[in-house]
Automatic annotation (TrEMBL):
The lineage of its organism: Bacteria, Bacillati, Bacillota, Bacilli, Bacillales. It comes from Paenibacillus marchantiophytorum. Keywords: Arginine metabolism, Hydrolase, Manganese, Metal-binding. Binds 2 manganese ions per subunit. This is Arginase. It is an enzyme of class 3 (hydrolase). It catalyses: L-arginine + H2O = urea + L-ornithine.
């Protein structure tokens, strides 16, 4: 059935980039929801390469010690992403498809850093209620998961932007945001000033998901040599995906979410993906983990008929 390369799933049980704990338990519940078995049933070769985590001696400091900064848990975020970047780079080198299971969205920093070694024009499709384009200066929370896309553009603390190598990892014109509906003032300014392609919920309502995805695919495939899908499950409506830390109402419905990844599968442009912000502690019977498994399967070619 498939021409999909071998999938290497990488778990990143990390949640110190987020304001609430629990996303660190996401990789395990996604795997328990039958991810690998499902892919194997589709005829795909899929392996789990292991977990990227902090060394045991880098136990998280007490929240009180880090909450006075606007870059909470900076050292931990740097460490885990440095490790993740190396692993992602190794998987690409091997010719496999990296599938990163988060974890909060700060792990996109390491994923994209590792990928950027292998592409000169890496495209990024960022499906998210948010744009994660804050810096310490603009962030309302100090949570680094709200900064990861800015970091990948080379903006922010050097310890973050210089992971893997010093250059910016992606270019603004190679990014497409989809599902945006909660943007901070600094983020809006940046989207406008850099001319980042952004399909908000307004655009999805106005044009329909099929139209938006076709535009996004045409836009990005024309100028990139690889496309990374960074999928934050809070892009979905909280009714569909209650198990996530920063829900925003008015999100994607189940069918829109599936259509988006089905169209990406059909276009055959995606070369890596990450699914982040599944928080089983906030979930309803692991509904959000099962949803993630369904979306990953659709992305990798599962069809209704
Ligand atoms: N990956 C996420 N869920 N990010 C949420 C970010 C929320 C908000 N914009 C902030 O910077 O704090
Ligand atoms: Mn996000
Ligand atoms: Mn989000």
């Amino acid at each position: 059935m498939s021409t999909v390369p071998t999938i290497s799933a990488i778990s990143v049980p990390f949640d110190l980039g987020a304001g609430r704990r629990g996303a660190s338990k996401g990789p395990k519940t996604i795997l328990q929801a039958g991810l690998l078995r499902g892919l194997q049933q589709m005829g795909i070769t899929a392996e789990h390469t292991g977990e990227i985590r902090l060394p045991d001696d880098q136990a998280a400091p007490l929240a009180a010690e880090v909450n006075h900064t606007n870059l909470k848990y900076l050292a931990e975020v740097v460490e885990v992403n440095t490790r993740l970047a190396k692993e992602v780079s190794r998987v690409v080198q091997q010719g496999h498809f990296p599938l990163i299971l988060g974890g909060d969205h700060s792990i996109a920093i390491g994923t994209i850093a590792g990928l950027s070694e292998h592409y000169t024009n890496l495209g990024v499709i960022w499906i998210d209620a948010h744009s994660d384009l804050n810096t310490a200066e603009t962030s309302p929370s100090g949570n680094i998961h709200g900064m990861s896309l800015a970091v990948s553009l080379g903006m922010g603390h050097p310890l973050l932007t210089e992971i893997q190598h010093k250059q910016p990892k992606i270019k603004p014109e190679n990014i497409v945001l989809i599902g945006s509906r909660s943007l901070d003032e600094g983020e809006k300014k940046l989207i406008r000033s850099l001319g980042i392609k952004c399909f908000t919920m307004y655009d999805i309502d106005r044009k329909g998901m099929a139209h938006v995805m076709q535009e996004a695919i045409d836009y990005i495939s024309a100028k990139t040599d690889g496309v990374h899908l960074s999928y934050d499950v809070d892009s979905l409506d909280p009714l569909e995906a209650p198990g996530t830390g920063t829900t925003v109402k008015g999100g994607l419905h189940f069918r829109e979410a599936h259509l988006a990844v089905e169209m990406l599968a059909e276009a055959g442009i995606v070369t890596s993906a990450e699914f982040v912000e599944v928080n089983p502690l906030l979930d309803d019977n692991n509904k959000t983990s099962h949803l993630a498994v369904g979306l990953i399967s659709s992305l990798l070619g599962k069809q209704i008929l």
